[in-house]
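Narrative progress, year one. The postdoctoral researcher (J.K.) led the effort to move from monomer predictions toward full complexes, under supervision of the PI. The following entry was the first complex the group processed end to end, covering 1012 residues in total.
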Amino acid sequence: MPKLIDVTELILRDAHQSLMATRMAMEDMVPACEDIDKAGYWSVECWGGATFDSCIRFLNEDPWERLRTFRKLLPNSRLQMLLRGQNLLGYRHYEDGVVDRFVENAAENGMDVFRVFDALNDVRNVRRSIKAVKRAGKHAQGTICYTVSPLHTITGYVELAEQLVELGCQSICLKDMAALLKPQPAYDIVKAIKQACGEETRVHVHVHSTTGVTLVSLMKAIEAGADCVDTAISSLSLGPGHNPTESLVEMLEGTGYETKLDKACLNRIKLHFAKIRPRYAQFLSNITGVETDIFDSQIPGGMISNMESQLKQQGAGDKLTEVLLEVPRVRKDAGYPPLVTPSSQIVGTQAVFNVMMGRYKVLTGEFADLMLGYYGTCLGTRNQQIVDLAAKQSKKDPINGRPADLLKPEWEELRSQALALKGCDGSDEDVLTYAMFPQVAEKFFVARHEGPKNLGKDPAKAAPAPAAAPANGGKKPDSNSGPVLVPITYEVKVDGKAHKVTVAPA
Amino acid sequence: MPKLIDVTELILRDAHQSLMATRMAMEDMVPACEDIDKAGYWSVECWGGATFDSCIRFLNEDPWERLRTFRKLLPNSRLQMLLRGQNLLGYRHYEDGVVDRFVENAAENGMDVFRVFDALNDVRNVRRSIKAVKRAGKHAQGTICYTVSPLHTITGYVELAEQLVELGCQSICLKDMAALLKPQPAYDIVKAIKQACGEETRVHVHVHSTTGVTLVSLMKAIEAGADCVDTAISSLSLGPGHNPTESLVEMLEGTGYETKLDKACLNRIKLHFAKIRPRYAQFLSNITGVETDIFDSQIPGGMISNMESQLKQQGAGDKLTEVLLEVPRVRKDAGYPPLVTPSSQIVGTQAVFNVMMGRYKVLTGEFADLMLGYYGTCLGTRNQQIVDLAAKQSKKDPINGRPADLLKPEWEELRSQALALKGCDGSDEDVLTYAMFPQVAEKFFVARHEGPKNLGKDPAKAAPAPAAAPANGGKKPDSNSGPVLVPITYEVKVDGKAHKVTVAPA
């Protein structure tokens, strides 16, 4: 009997987050839910990550309502979310009481599996939320953010896994945000975790496909004993997204491993999203091929685009190479954090500052906080000179404790602030929405009654996409390649008589 | 010490044949040759397949001159070509004397490695060319066309490999034209060939990437002992093309296998073709994602597009599903030929005829020939009823012998026909060009002095590409999504007075 390999489907969360800037409207997902529910997935990732932010910022959609809708439409599925530990779905640390309430409410609204991670792999930043998940009787999945550095070793990852298991996690996720996980380390890490934590410890593997090698890494992880792998249906896969679900199914044929996915369901899901995809052309990632430069620079693709646009805004687009060389130095000074939200932005922006204004002449507030321990602890020792500089500039002391320990209970204050807002319905969910993104929530509460906005456009009416972008790192041309908006001269016959007519936008 | 894995680079032949209809002009390849020559490839595929046809039909370029240029620009590389056995680079069987002369001339002009295949895997159709390659002192690579059917077994493929080795082939190529080769069969076939033919028998593996699983298949083939794998530089890879060279290199890190490719060279080659690619937007394949349907239908992607356009021309676009179901039946009746040029076209067109006019009411001439043995022998038994029908309709007898045995010496006649043409320079190469494509050659000889045409266009000036096609099997819309170029009549009111106004490009 082949061994059963479980699959987590990413189409409803990370697939569109990675490929179309998290813009997919709920109504474009609803028609596929029946097939997704029947296909035989171990879980369906559908919430968390950037979806919460995107719902209220761009889609005028209540994220809690989205969760309840998924719960209704996917009655037989484990719903899964991505949770940033003590950051929840926001960009700062929350006090423990808020963490508890967030998890409770997510569980009550239908969430089953909480994948909890911390950008720095600091276990202290995920402990509270993991406990809250367990208290709610739900599945707590502890996460290892995979990165490559002189200090990151298999032993280190295994120790992290052991700590997560000790915290009561029912499974461990090896999470590779930047497609850096090559086949051999995938095998070695999964094998070592199984050996250290016991064969019964579930190991899930999450990879992106940017570098083109990670389907092979999934194969090797499976050979090493991985229980579940993450994929996205083919019509919204590849590039900075994920490996195609259907390819995983086919790849395993005859290998001694198999999924129990229903190919007819997968085909219908594929066709649905193939139809939806062109409606979001304006948000689609430029990267359609593979990008293996990442292995050398260890800088994720999305981070390069960000830095490039920062540089261009300052008229220094030619400085990109210098900045790319500066990133590893800044990362080393910070103690080798994995580069993932928010550490990728913090390190990247500081590298830009270093190149533009001289090395560490100016520190961003966030980089100072990172150096002073306000995001937690990294594997490496921080450069003491920069720590001193950060303390001096920010007038803060370095800390060694858990960052959230510095926070005072804040629920009641958040609650009274939220309830004072027009349109807030007084529910815990609304307070949590406010807690995550105060300014955005304020606008959202006012506009909520207008109902969800679908940013997708009929491709026949939308401006055509730019001509075939190069496979590698190509950027969309700045010029509009749609209907020409410059003056055009036509020959026009009016009542049979020819005129030269020039037409320009009024 | 890691085992060295050799690599054949496809960028100069199959990559642009698969992704941009073989349209790349020589001048767009020349600047990359220095790096290709230095990168450390085992061989550089750069000639044969459809390039010969495309050179004289579309590019006004002498294919023999192209070969000599590559020889000059790649002095340290093995040049490799794809040869269709007794069909050479044309679409009919040639008499043995023509086969000998073609191979001799290719060798004299610089070719080193001849990958020789027959669409039906009929060894009798490759024997003569393999002998000619050996006589010229060059490397003869015998090819197994991989397909899936109830009759195709590992044992069968191994027997074929043994026959090719007996013919004196220095290496065996397992060639997967349609991306059907899954990891486990890749492992099993390579392993079995090595066991049967000896570890010293070189095995090369050629796969396309359409289904998304074949980089894993290459990994498994390497684990089974494959000596060399085919890839294409990343900026012209994936989709109906091939796996990215750079991803292969990275994938192997730490596995006990390694290539000796120079990453700095690969990077420069990548950047060059990333720049060239958008110039050929008009020819680029629509398929950018993966397409796993092929596993069920066993119908290669290109074949589906062909059938679709045949059906549309006859106003029967709605019959595609019926035709797709008819293909496996026709293939079975024909004895399960692999579906590759020309068998894919022959089987596909007959399936269209069956659906449009009733099953086998009308046979195409080519299908009748296939049924009567004029293309050689397949693994399966042909349906006798259809063989009888074919004999009756075509007034030909079925044959069992080698098709080329029926041909009389034809070199002298081809030579005198060619020499009679305006612009023919009287060389053996020109006679061979004429022999391959008589009508096209006639026009080419006349126009040759005008020099090569580059069909690439400055992307800034080219018409915009159609809006983001779906990843899966999407077809380019027939309508031009650029500015409207047909006359349009409006009713226009100027100062209250109505006019009929017709607008057309000036």
